[in-house]
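How it folds
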Amino acid sequence: MFSPFGSYDGGMRSVATVRAGVALWEIAVPSRPTRPAGVSMAGFRDQATELVDLRLVPHPAVTLGIDLGSGLIVDDAHGRQQCGTVVAGLAPTARVSGRRIECLQIRVSPIVAHTALRGSPELDGAVITLDDLWGPDARRVQERLREAPTWDARFAIVEDALAQRHAAGRPVDPETRFVWSRMTAHLGRVRVEDLAIEVGWSRKRLWSRFRAQIGMTPKRAAQLIRFNEAARRLAAGHSPALVAADTGYADQSHLHRDVAAFTGVTPTAVAADAWLAVDHIAWP
């Protein structure tokens, strides 16, 4: 059940309150595109008191979760538990839990993550801390975010930190950038062999460079992008049969296998997932 009440805070950011499962989320979204391109942000504050327990649904972006309260806990598939500022790769298997959660979530394209985060590993379903990538700078950024008086100030702090690191870092190969852009533009419905020919690389070289810079093979990346589109449509209320037909799966059983491979649950369960319930507000 959703109960959005849109408003604006000082004309700078849009705010909505959304009921999703046991949580009552206040969601803040920047009023303009974030820089560098390929980065999006949303602020979350749970106004309820119940324990929130969410399954992290894979998304074709590296996800940063910055805890601004004191109750955000992330458990990964390997039994490791992280708190504070965490980084999840492109296809994590993890759960997020806590009470009265207040956090900033940032989605970073793997093209940007390779430069700004010093790599975008798939992490084999694991979750690491930002300290592992940025060292002491990560703690300083988190302290500034906790002291910031508004969501706008927090958005600006993260934007500046990412933009500075992105400008100073080493970008991905133009060929890798092109292949990723074609994959996303076609929602994963591409032939990797054709893309290798377009950029003038052998299939082996594309596999090697793409995996090194994006964090997974081109084939798996295309599958993840297509899965993400299917998951969003399922969460929007479309039937699995229609979603399978519209997103290029051979049939409904093919969709079922892909969803199970990425999430471990059925398309019906994904459609009702609380993690996706706020996508239309936080990530329009």
